[in-house]
Design goal:
By secondary structure, the chain is an alpha/beta fold. It is built from 13 helices and 15 strands. Strand 5 and strand 6 form a beta hairpin. The relative contact order is 0.07.
Length: 459
Amino acid sequence: MNNFISKVMLFLVAALLVISSIGPSPASAWTVFKDIGAEDVEIDYLYDRGLIQGISKYEFGPSHLVTREQAATMIGRALGLNGTKRNTKFSDVNPTSYGSGYIQSAVEKGFISGYPDGSFKPSQIMTRGEMARLLSRAFYLTQTSSVFYADVEVNNASNSLYTAVNKITTAGISTGTGDGKYSPLQKLTREEFAIFLARSLDSKFKVTFQNATIAKLYSTTDNLNARTGPSTGYNVIGQIQKGAEVQVYGYNGNWAYGKSGSVTGYFSLSYLSKAVAQPSRVMVIDAGHGGSDPGAVANGLREKDVNLDVSLRVERMLKAKGIQVLMVRRTDVFYSLDYRAAYGVKNGADAFVSIHANAASAGVSGSETFYSASVANDSKQLATFIQNRLYKAMEHTNRGVKEYDYRVIEANPLPAALVELGFLTNSGDAAKLATSTYKERAASAVAEGIEDYYEWKER
């Protein structure tokens, strides 16, 4: 047992010696600064390399502001420039000042030029925008990407603020100040400077930028192109449809850069709106016959009366669904077939339904709906949606969807259908169409079929 305990003690002593030989953790190198947290690894990195110092023995001063001379000095140290104090090209930089050598070296390297009046303004506080220009030049950053900040106007000039901010963002040096902003006029703090400089020197500190959504716009047209750049000269990488939402990250001239669904690119502002583009739903309801033209007359019913009654009910139901309705007639009046066929186009409608009742031998019963080949696909779909609901609502024979060139649908450029509710010449059909209950059911079926059509059209 004593031998076992001796071995354990020897192991513990050896382990302690190994641990102590490792030395302090990286963070402990800068814990001399009492105003810095353990998360400030960039400051640790720069302090270890002698590139930054504290404002006192135990304070780093993270919120203290950085002057232009201080910034030039710290970058000069980081790049290993000649810091020997000497004369500079700037009359307002004292040759004996601590940063004079670094300022002149930076001038000779071409990344400091001063102000147009020949001054450098060494004591002036540096802004975040100035820092972006200084870093982009000092570290010869060239790559740009689709970077946008709400408070940095896009400008493609080589020396523009946007280009400098874009370069340091693309390089992983900055992600802005939050809410999609860079804050270029905000005064630069020592903590910000240290973070920027460390990211410039070592890739392990770099960050990934994500554009923030600064607006939401909506496509006003189908097949709107998304392009790789802000002009029609760039390649098309996808398309979006009318009403699609675009999360806007930024603007470049008449183009918005953003994401819609799985497509990210540039969209023309000429086809984007702040409001959701509402699909067009303007339906013409044509009550067949009227006035001097009674239509079919049988079993005590006149077709023109049944058609108008049901049509007015359809109007009420469609309006309740948010569909705009244009009525060819609301009273017992006669209009020609060509007038009816042209009515929708003249008044901005997008579809047309003519409502009728049928006539044949007494034994023929049921409902049927017609379309013309003039607008075959959409017209057939409209007729089908209505018919599929109508025969069930009327509880009688389904005579189907048929193609026939009735003048009001054949001469109509809009998707158009002609509905035959039932046969007035059949006693069973006529008895139903004489009641308010079945007129309401017929109207509901037509209205729901029309709504089905619009939903199909808008998919």
